[in-house]
Amino acid sequence: MLTRGMAVYIGQRVILIAFTVLAVSSVVFLGIHRLPGDALLNEKVKGPAYLALLHHYGLDEPLYVQYKNYIVGIVTRGDLGESLVNRGLKIGPLVARELGVSAEVGGLALIFTIGLGILLGVFAAVRQNTWVDYLLTTTSVIGYSMPNFVIAAFLILFFGVWLGNITGGTFYYQLGAWSGDIGQVWLPAFALGFPYASYVARLTRASMLEVIRQDYIRTARAKGLRETTILARHALRNALIPVTTILGPLTIGIITGSVVIENVFGIPGLGKEFAQSILNRDYAIVIGVFTMYAGMVGLANLLVDLGYVVLDPRIRY
Amino acid sequence: MASPILQVRHLKTHFPTHQGTVRAVDDVSFELYPGETLGIVGESGSGKSITALSLLRLVPDPGRIVGGEIIFKNDDIMKMSGEDVRELRGRDIAMIFQDPQSSLNPVLKVGYQIDEAMISHGRPRSEARTRTIELLKRVRIPAAESRVNDFPHQLSGGMRQRAMIAMGLANAPQILIADEPTTALDVTVQAQILELLGDLNRELGTAIVMITHNMGVVAGLCTRVIVMYAGRIVEQGPVDTIFENPQHPYTWSLLRSVPRVDALRHDRLRSIEGIAPDLLRPPKGCRFHPRCPFRIEKCYTDEPELMNVAPDDLAACWVTMDRARKEMNADAITDIRPGAGSGYHRGEVG
Amino acid sequence: MATAVATRAIEIEMPEQASLWSDAWRRLRRNRLALIGTIYLVFLVAVALVSLVWTPYRMSAIGIAPTYQGPTAAHLLGVDSLGRDILSRLMVGSQISLIVGVGTQVLVLLVGVPIGLAAGYYRGWFDSVVTFVINVFYGIPDVLVAMIMVFLLGPSLTNIIIAIVVTRWMDMARLVRGQALSLREREFVEAGRAAGARPIKMLFGHILPNALGPIIVQATLGVPGAILFEAFLSFLGVGVQPPMPSWGSMASDGVRAIEFAPHIVVAPSIALSVTLIAFNFLGDGLRDALDPRSRR
Q1: CB atoms A28 and C145 under 8 Å
Q2: Chain C residues with CB inside 8 Å of A23's CB?
Q3: Is the pTM above the cut of 0.90?
Q4: CA atoms within 13 A on the CB side of B65
Q5: What is the ipTM of this complex?
Q6: Which residue of A has its CA nearest to B119?
Q7: Burial letters for B56-77: b for 16+ Cβ neighbours within 10 Å, e otherwise?
Q8: Of residues A302, A306, A316, A303, the one with CA closest to residue A19
Q9: CB-based contacts of C16: which residues, under 8 Å, 6+ apart?
Q10: Are A289 and A94 a contacting pair, CB within 8 Å?
Q11: Which tens digit of pLDDT belongs to each residue from C176-219?
């Protein structure tokens, strides 16, 4: 399967991703540094201390030199610079740690989204026009229409407040202190993934319905295959092809959605860091985290494209 | 004559719609004998495809088989459980379809699709693969060993149809139903496929039911033929007899309208005037009467049943071509227009 | 013998001919969910218009009741963390959501449609450039970029709209381009060109009208996306600034007080959800009504 055409395609995509990441991060870099010089430094320092500070951060260099140094630093040392607000706090390790946390929640949300979404979608398609189907179709629209923080708020209200109250505190969702164990992760993961799971369910259902009407399904029946085999082996693979199309935007949605969800649940992840740093004006962190995000998004898109190839043998580059 | 392996009695398949019930197959009865080639011929909407699908209970929603028996070797398929029908499909009775491009799953390898026809009926995997390659060779696909790993889109139209035939014959069924297998193919490829089917029928003894709208296909491959119109059988009998001396005006018109290579240049193309009947509200009396050149009074009111109008020839007609030739100068008719022969137009000045 | 009688014309009952639009309208009317959605949206617009001249209390009035107090007769939806009437703020918030939702789509149409049409119809180098640009934009995380943009440019409604348009224009452009690409292969386009019609006339007189259906659907479905986007930004504090009451920022306030004053988060949450659901129902209804392939 790894033909020359494929290798060329992957190469092209990697270049596009690299280009995008560079372009976007440079635009952000430029934008931020266009602000008046000392907006970058919150402290009210004057004189030689101020110049020393500028020099420490390399802010006294021309803009393009700064950017060059920055990129070189990332590529060669994985060095994302130093926090402007918390002197001495290296961004690289910070980001790495927080990425782990975000990935845990995001990854769970992704699995949940795709898994549950596809399952429900198939189920609704097979039970078309029954009450199960109508229920699912309507709920799915509601599901993906609601903002994830609304879902999160209602979950907290239910599990954290109401359930805690009526069970006298025995069942209680701990807000605040993050211990990172699985019990604390599933609620935010659910809130994060639910809108997308609804969308995937809807899309899978529509796609399955179309696929089931196809001639090759009729052939499979005429061969005497079991209905479950037909669904799983013949129908599903074809039905998932359109679903793969939205996987890219879906992953991006989960990544950006995590910014809000981490905020709500107090999860010390990348998203919370990003939002906080913007409000704190810690632009070094903003740029560092953002560059990371841009890279992740590009990678996600590439993986989705490759997934496409695996699913549909008609696509070859 | 040996006893039939398939007996269809009074089959009725209807489609309920918002505007009423479409009676796609309305009381069809026939028999199929072991090893024979039976053609079912008719225009679009005649019910021939639905008849074929009904045999294996594959009628698509919202269609339902509402009546009749389909007896395969002493068992009524209509009374079988879903599981038993599933076993029957692909093993005892197989079916291949019109468009091999859309009838094969595009994301699965061709070899796999043929393997699974056998595996699902109990054959072990390794055995199935060997036999698949054998089958592909049988249907004359070159380089069979490498073709098994190809996807359908990598094969040409003719090869795809051969692969479908291989899939149909995988379990050596006693009956192969072919629903317009050549319609979607080039003319030259059509001829090859028909030849292949004829050879396989002779070599394997598999009975073939060939659904088609093309009289030429029937003439080339089949020994017996059933002519369908508006959901019913209008004529039935050996191909030679029917083609030489068709008794039902519809059959006669069909044969007449086939363009001939040796026709003179100024001879006009003949078509049967009118459009296919509305299966929601079929015409009263004989369903062909609105278009029939030889209709009489009775055709408007009474629907004819299949009758023995000649030795070996069953036709559902009050007039028959023999009488039309004697009394209405049928052979002189150039246009196949309603009432052209009998001069009968009810309610008009004649 | 043949008689010289005119053959009676075969009478076939033809169904009443319907154009795409009247047919679509008829189908839309039958869609219950879309109808409910439209009724709600009309109501919402009414509320927004009313709130321009009147609200029960001034939306920025602080401390007119004990802070965090729940719903009472005087304050039907209760009062927030600064003692402001939630109902009044909710009403004004509808203005923001509608302005952002509709405003972004108008701009997206103005930007995306011409670009998409030109790229899909003319192809060539222009199309390659446009496709490349679209792909680049799809590679950026929209919310994050918008956050940075709004923060740098200043958190005004205009800037929010601009940020959203900049990060989401590609959806419309890609759709329109796809439409233009497939429509240009149709026979009526060939016929038009053979008749010597000028390209502009082809684009706007022939291709655009045929692409209108999907465009309308995309724009309608783009509104809830934009409203959601703005709610996210405001929730995180990078959107509309106080005292302007975006539903997003109201919800954000509410989440902070969720354990002891749940009513604060509930009102804007429901307002947002219902509005988004209504737009989605309407958009779905439009899509089903305009799709000639769908059954019924």
Answers
A1: yes
A2: 136
A3: no
A4: 22
A5: 0.85
A6: A225
A7: bbbbeeebebeebebbbeeeeb
A8: A302
A9: none
A10: no
A11: 998 888 888 877 777 777 777 777 777 777 788 888 889 999 99
